[in-house]
Design goal:
526 residues; alpha+beta; Helix Hairpins; 4 domains; elongated; ribosomal large subunit binding
């Protein structure tokens, strides 16, 4: 989100059009690094949190009752003062509000400039008087080359030798030294190289920002973001939308991480259980050997002498000698009983393991599918639905906070190709609903033995062409655990061949009479 000098240029124009000639009603500090100036119909928020910015607001945000020191000082000097100018230094991220205010101590009009330097960690707000001396600053700076403390001459951190494209006549973009361009972020330079200097100058004269989406991230630009779809919005509107989207994205990632962590913990537990079951199943290999030794020991029991540790006999089936380890402290009969008890215990363990392995594999399949739905969720509403599913199966507990959480119902992902509607579930509950509601002749798709969303091609009584099936298969692969792979196997069949086993968890279905197609997932959702 580059709040560069170009964006500031447009933001200040909007602010100037709204507050010029207006009086300052009050000044607040929502937090230590922000100052909010209230006017008759609007507010201006100056934020020094990286990325630092200034924005016009129509509504008052939450502010503490007791103002901080800097806000109190600004109130004393500028409250009821009139804004006579709003300016930017060139195209840099520096500017000021010029304020004409009555000083009760001297009974005279005073002129102040509230400078804002939006320079990342070095951002600052400085109140300067008519003698160009610092009255006070949000952050005092004691550096020798440029101190910012009360009483010193104010020197803006501004390099006027840089190239300002609005003031210099630049015919050819090839003559530009990009490192010397004033107000351009790296992203703005990239757009400039695509659209050219003349288009950029025209764009800067327009009163709006370009609001666009790059991947899953929303952003804004003062010049045309070539190769992106964009909206033209008022600067304040574009900024607020991006801030809100970023806040939502942060919350989305936080919820996603928490849910993924909980499901991953369950997957790890099941993987350990599966490993133990496989070890138990592996003992089936020893059963034949144990049973043979039991037969031989029973047949030659009369030859065993108490106190022997090993007993060697001839196997009448193979003619080979077999050595059986026995307990010298036990009688021959006791040794035989111990061996048969071991055989019985091993058989029981293997039988139990065979029953459990199927259940554990089904559980693993479900939780891997659940993990994939969390991973591919694109909005908070979908994650809230997934949380409800996790509560239903007992993976998350219901508490007061979750009871108050807004219950939502999201819609399927929808695509259209060659006149056919393609629907994709966003979570397991949606997968169930989507598959249940599909017509018998609709085509149902799912990645082969890989967790993915259910995908349906609506037939609407028409024969579905192969190219539509191929496209839908690519979508199914895109919303699967194999989305980053090159060749993904996708199974497809008519909905009439798909059924849900009794007692199966959400999203878990079986299917038959299917065909498989190998496709490349989309790198970007179409």
């Amino acid at each position: 989100m580059p709040f560069d000098g170009l964006v500031l240029h447009k933001v200040l124009k909007e602010i100037k059009n709204n507050i010029l000639g207006d009086r300052i009603k009050n000044i607040y500090q929502p937090i230590k690094s922000q100052v909010l100036i209230q006017f008759s119909q609007s507010f201006v928020l100056l934020s020094l949190i990286s990325p630092s910015y200034v924005i016009l607001l129509s509504q008052k945000p939450n502010v503490p009752i007791q103002p901080a020191n800097f806000a109190q000082f600004l109130r004393k000097k500028t409250r009821n003062g009139r804004v006579v100018d709003v300016e930017q230094l060139g195209l840099d991220r520096i500017g000021y509000f010029e304020i004409e205010s009555y000083d009760q101590e001297t009974s005279a009009m005073r002129e102040y400039k509230l400078f804002f330097e939006l320079m990342g960690r070095n951002s600052n707000l400085i109140l300067v008087n008519e003698d160009n001396k610092v009255e006070e600053s949000l952050k005092r700076v004691y550096e020798e080359f440029r101190p910012i403390i009360p009483g010193v001459k104010y020197l803006p951190y501004y390099d006027d030798s840089q190239t300002n494209i609005l003031e210099e006549n630049i015919e050819n973009i090839e003559n530009i030294d990009y490192d010397r361009l004033m107000g351009f972020s790296k992203k703005s330079i990239a757009f400039l190289q695509e659209i050219g200097i003349q288009r950029a100058i025209k764009d800067l004269k327009k009163p709006y920002l370009f609001y666009f989406k790059e991947g899953n991230t929303y952003d804004f630009s003062a010049i045309t973001p070539n190769n992106f779809k964009y909206e033209e919005l008022k600067p304040s509107e574009a900024l607020l939308k991006v801030f809100q989207e970023r806040a939502n994205q942060s919350r989305l990632l936080e919820i996603k991480r928490d849910l993924e962590k909980r499901v991953k913990s369950e997957i790890d537990r099941l993987e350990k259980t599966k490993e133990q079951i496989l070890q138990d199943l592996n003992e089936e290999k020893n059963l034949k050997d144990l049973e043979k030794k039991g037969e031989l020991l029973q047949a030659y029991l009369y030859k065993i002498k108490k106190g022997e540790r090993y007993f060697t006999v001839n196997d009448w089936n193979t003619g080979e000698e077999v050595t059986i380890e026995i307990d010298p402290l036990l009688s021959p009969t006791q040794n035989l009983g111990k061996l048969y008890k071991n055989i019985k215990r091993t058989k029981s363990k293997v039988e139990y393991a065979k029953k459990r392995i199927k259940k554990v594999n089904n559980e693993l399949e479900y939780f891997n599918q659940l993990f994939e739905t969390i991973s591919s969720a694109e909005d908070i509403e979908t994650l809230i639905e997934i949380k409800e599913e996790m509560k239903d199966i007992g993976l998350l507990s219901e508490n007061k906070k979750s009871k108050r959480e807004r219950k939502v119902k999201t819609t399927f992902r929808k695509f259209n190709y060659k006149g056919f509607e393609i629907l994709v579930g966003k979570n397991n509950k949606q997968n169930d609903e989507l598959t249940r509601s599909a017509a018998q002749a609709d085509i149902w798709l799912h990645t082969h033995e890989i967790p993915s969303s259910h995908t349906i091609i609506k037939s609407s009584g028409k024969e579905i062409p192969e190219e539509v099936i191929d496209y839908a298969a690519r979508i199914a692969a895109t919303f699967s655990k194999a989305k980053m792979s090159s060749n993904v196997a996708v199974d497809y069949t008519q909905r009439k061949n798909v059924w849900k086993p009794k007692g199966a968890k959400p999203g878990m279905w079986l299917y038959k009479n299917y065909e498989t197609i190998i496709v490349e997932p989309f790198r970007e959702v179409p």
